[in-house]
Structures are given as C-alpha cells and as structure tokens.
Amino acid sequence: MQGDHAENKGGKREKFTILDARSVGGIIALGGTILGSARCPEFKDEAVQKKALKQLADRDISGLIVIGGNGSQAGAAALSRLGFPVVGLASTIDNDLYGSEITIGVDTALNVALESIDRLRVTARSLRRVFFVEVMGRDCGYLALHCGIIGGAEAVVIPEAETTPEEIAAELLAAHERGKRHAIVVVAEGAVYNATKLVNYFIENPEKLGCDVRATILGHVQRGGTPSAFDRMLATRFGAAAVECLTGGGVLIGLLHGRIAATPFSEVVSREKKLETRLLELASVLSI
Ligand code: F6P
Which protein residue's CA is at the shortest distance from atom 10 of ligand 1? Predict the structure, then answer.
C-alpha cells in the first residue's frame, strides 16, 4: 500500500501509506503530526463515517487508533458505535478531555508558555508595565490557570470564573499597594474578556490602572514545542496500551490517578471534565 493513491467516486484521493519502524524513526522528538491529518467537520455525518469504514474494509484494515482531543474522540466513538474496533489516545493541549487527567501535549505547551511569560516579565519589570498574556485552551482555562501559577502571575482570567476589567483593576491596584511595580496577567483565550478586550478597556479608561499596558497573544507558538520528556513518556505509554486494547476497542486510553486507564467512549463523549477551580485560590495566594 505504500504511496498508494486511489481516486474515490468524488474524485478525492484516498491516501494510505504503510509506516514501518524506519519511516517513523526520530518522530519522538517532533511536535505536531507527520500524518497531515486535520479537523473534518463532515465526519459528524453518519454517511461520511460509513464511507470511512468502507475505505478501511477495502484495504483490509481491521482496527484504528485515533490520537486527538474531543473532536477526534467523538469521531472515534462514532466508528466504534458502528462496530469497528477503535481505540482513542488522549491528546490535546487544552486538557479538556474526559477520561484522562493529563493529555499528550499539555506539558510541552505549558513549558513553551512558561518560557514566554518569563521573557515577558523582563520588559514588564524594566518598564513597569502590565502585560496581558493570552494562552490557548479553547473554552477551557486549564492552560491559563496552570501558567498563572507556575509563571507567578499577578492575576489569572479564565472562562470558568469570569472576571470583569474592574475586578482585575482592583486586583492589580491592590498588588501595587503591596509594592508590586509591574504585573503579568495570564488570560485564557476562551474568557469573555480576552487579552485584546482587556487592553482596549484599559487604553480607553487610562485612569483605571494608570500604567502602560500591553497584550501578547501566544497563539500557535504553544503548539510548536519540541515534546517534553513527560510528553514523550506519556505518548509512548499510551501508544503501547492502545495496541493492547485494539482487539476489543471502544475505549479511550488516558491517565487516571497516575496510572494508564481505559475509559469507554460512551463515558468520554457524554461527560465533561471539570477544571480544578480550587487552584484559582492557590494562584491568588501565590500572587501576594
Ligand atoms: O484544540 C487545540 C487548539 O490549539 C485550541 O487551544 C485552539 O483554540 C485551537 O486548537 C486553535 O485551532 P486552529 O489551529 O484551527 O486555529
């Protein structure tokens, strides 16, 4: 099947490539994916799912391992419901997937964001500025909350605990009263008041803070890190467990209570992972 490109009825090319040990050599040190796979909104349609199953059957493929976050696992669960052996592998920097306390990519994204926050603090400190640093995470505040704690932020803004610009101003003025002359505020991209909105507010209302403000949006930089040691180990352990579970399928491989665990897709797609908002208190205590 190597390099095998067949045209389907719609004229789209189906690509199947056998990956042997040599062709995946060295990918443990690479971020992203060598597969070039991406989101496919049409996959929500059962007709498209059945088409995928037909393509797999035509190639004598008898099982699938799906690496990804909520969208990918919803697709994996759909194929599994149609009777195909599928195992999911918990992987997203957002860490919002039920069935794994930590997902592949989170640790690397945290390290990339942390390095950026440490670098931004140099200018914040030197020029006595307030930086609003926006991190990814879609609707989930995990990355922002954790970056806030490990980066020693003066304030954290996450969707799970919405904060108004006035409340942030009050926090920063209180920090100023305690002798702080610069500040870093870590903002989740999913918050109602994201970094751009907050900076615009403080530019339009200069009397609220009385200092120079800047917004830095880290964006896809966070997805471009060389995988951390933790992520390499996690992905390797998940991968080995996925192969072991492939015969039965129907589960997501993740980490629960520090151990590799398999959670049925029915639970993964119907339940929501809750953010440990208790950590907000810790962030607040540490910012004193
Ligand atoms: O789900 C991972 C993620 O990086 C989110 O944190 C972010 O909101 C989104 O993907 C970005 O998607 P895109 O690359 O399509 O802009």
Answer: 138
